[in-house]
Every structure is written in structure tokens, then in C-alpha cells.
Design goal:
Blueprint (H helix, E strand, L loop, with lengths): L1 E2 L9 H16 L5 E6 L3 E2 L14 H19 L4 E6 L1 E4 L1 H7 L3 E5 L6 E2 L11 H11 L1 H10 L5 H7 L4 E3 L4 H13 L3 H20 L2 H13 L1 H17 L2
This protein binds ligand LYEYTBR6.
Subcellular location: Mitochondrion matrix
Protein name: Enoyl-CoA delta isomerase 1, mitochondrial
EC number: 5.3.3.8
Length: 243
């Protein structure tokens, strides 16, 4: 699955909906046993959640958006398919969550391709289920530092901390992801799927048990003047970077 939402593969409501529909189709087609998620935008896996879906929007829109974000996470995280991330670009915040929700992550060895939950740098916070997935992946201590400081790990650090499973030369990302897929597909589906569910369900259940409350929290938080100001400042910084 090649993500194509130029210029930066931001996860807009429309793009999330397209991803959800595509994933559902693949899940329902029994000829598919695995997917490799990668990007068609040069140098960018995904810029994460679309800031324009959270800035200057009314509460109803924010609620609809957050529901779609939850939905995509649950679908990827709990997918019965083998999901491999072929991460061929930078993946901050929501892009990192998407990567972390894969069963295995292969990152291209380019110092620009940083990965991490950098929410605090935007003046916002990673929701508890983003945090849970990071803690599950890199452990409590590493996650508490990474989250508070908004670390974006370059490939060598990403491998060391375990946020990705493998770092390979850029031209080998897709072929490595395909070899990894072959290894994973050698395992009988029912055994692998039940095991995946056993490991991941408790984390997903934490959100499933309080989805509506999570949406309300998000809407309350994102609607605060101080948070809207932080988003405004961050968006202006992105604009000014262009010069
Ligand atoms: C109680 C609490 C309850 C709940 C929690 C509450 C809320 C918080 C939860 C929120 C969780 C948030 C998760 C996220 O994912 S936030 C997004 C994080 N993303 C980033 O920080 C990345 C920002 N982008 C960049 O750093 C660069 O754009 C990037 C990806 C390195 C690419 O750089 P470059 O190629 O130079 O391209 P430009 O910067 O020029 O960007 C081109 C164009 O795209 C716009 N853009 C970039 N990123 C985003 C984005 N994430 N959303 C929307 N738009 C984006 C950028 O502004 C440019 O636009 P322009 O119009 O100027 O062309």
C-alpha cells in the first residue's frame, strides 16, 4: 500500500477515510495475507495528523476527525494481516504511530528520516494510546524521555532504542520488507493472528473501553485557546521555513 497524499502524506480526514476503505477491502479479500505500507512522497513517510484538521475547526469537525484517527489506528494495530512498514521517509507523531502499529518496521538509512512522537514540540500531547504503543515498543524509561522531549530519532538511534526493527540502505527498503513478509507468512495464519490478538488486545481495549470519552477529551483539549495558539505558531514556523 503506497500512501499518496502530496506533498507530505498528512493524515487528513479524506486521506484517513481512503486508507480505511483500502484496508477494509484488503482485509475482506481472503487472497491477501499481508500488506507492506510505504510512501509515494519522496523523503516523507507521513507528516502525521493533518494540523489543518485540528486548527480553527469547530468541535463537531474535530470529533469526526478524531473518530477517524482512532478508527485507523485500531484497524492497523489489530489487523489480521501481517503489516510491515517500509519506512522511506520522515515519520513524526501520527506517522510514527502508524509505523508503530505495524508488526515490523524497516527504516531507510537516511539521517533525514527521523521517527518519533514529537507532539510536545508542537505544544500538544500524545494521547494515552499513542503513549501505550510507544511504551510497549521501547520500554517505559526510554518512552518517558522520548515523549517529554519530543525526540525524533534518526535511523541509528531509532534502531538502538528499538523504535524500528531494521535499518537498511534506502534502495533496499522494499526488498527487505518483502523478505521479512515472506518470513512472517511462513507462520500459519490462525496461530499468528491469535497470538497477535493476545499481545495487542489489552492495549486496544484501553481505547475501546473509552472511545467516546477520548473523543470528548480531544475536542476539549484541542479547542483551548492556548492549544490553538501553539498550533498557529507551529504552522507559521512551517511556512517561514520555506523563506
Ligand atoms: C487531554 C488530551 C486528550 C487528547 C490529546 C489531545 C490532542 C493532541 C493529539 C494530537 C496528536 C498529534 C499528532 C500529529 O501527528 S501532529 C503533526 C505532527 N507533524 C509534524 O510535526 C510534522 C510537520 N511537518 C514537517 O516537519 C515538515 O513539513 C516535513 C514533514 C519534514 C516535510 O518538510 P518539507 O518537505 O520541507 O515540506 P514543508 O514543511 O514545506 O511542508 C509542505 C506543506 O505541507 C504542510 N504540512 C506539513 N506537515 C503538515 C501536517 N502535519 N499537517 C498539515 N500540513 C502540513 C506545510 O505547512 C506546507 O504547507 P504549505 O501550504 O506552506 O505548502
Amino acid at each position: 500500500m503506497k500512501m499518496r497524499n502530496p506533498p507530505v502524506n498528512s493524515l487528513s480526514l479524506e486521506f484517513l477515510t481512503e486508507l480505511l476503505i483500502s484496508l477494509e477491502k484488503l482485509e475482506n479479500d481472503k487472497t491477501f495475507r499481508g500488506i507492506i505500507i510505504t510512501s509515494d512522497c519522496p523523503g516523507i513517510f507521513s507528516a502525521g495528523l493533518d494540523l489543518l484538521e485540528m486548527y480553527g475547526r469547530d468541535p463537531a469537525h474535530c470529533a469526526e476527525y478524531w473518530k477517524a484517527v482512532q478508527e485507523l489506528w485500531l484497524r492497523v494495530y489489530l489487523s489480521n494481516l501481517v503489516v510491515i512498514g517500509a519506512i522511506n521517509g520522515i515519520s513524526p507523531a501520527g506517522g510514527c504511530l502508524l509505523s508503530l502499529s505495524c508488526d515490523y518496521r524497516v527504516l531507510a538509512n537516511n539521517p533525514k528520516y527521523a521517527i518519533g512522537l514529537n507532539e510536545t514540540l508542537l505544544g500538544i500531547i500524545a494521547p494515552f494510546w499513542f503513549k501505550d504503543v510507544l511504551v510497549n515498543t521501547i520500554g517505559h524509561r526510554a518512552a518517558e524521555r522520548a515523549l517529554q522531549l519530543g525526540f525524533l530519532f534518526p535511523p541509528s538511534d531509532a534502531l538502538q532504542v528499538g523504535i524500528v526493527d531494521q535499518v537498511v540502505p534506502e534502495d533496499q527498503v522494499q526488498s527487505t520488507a518483502r523478505s521479512v513478509m515472506a518470513q512472517w507468512l511462513a507462520i500459519p495464519d490462525h496461530a499468528r493472528q491469535l497470538t497477535k490478538n493476545l499481545v495487542r488486545k489489552p492495549t486496544a481495549d484501553r481505547l475501546l473501553q473509552q472511545r467516546d470519552a477520548d473523543i470528548q477529551n480531544f475536542v476539549r483539549f484541542i479547542s483551548r485557546d492556548s492549544i490553538q495558539k501553539s498550533l498557529h505558531v507551529y504552522l507559521e514556523k512551517l511556512k517561514q521555513k520555506k523563506g
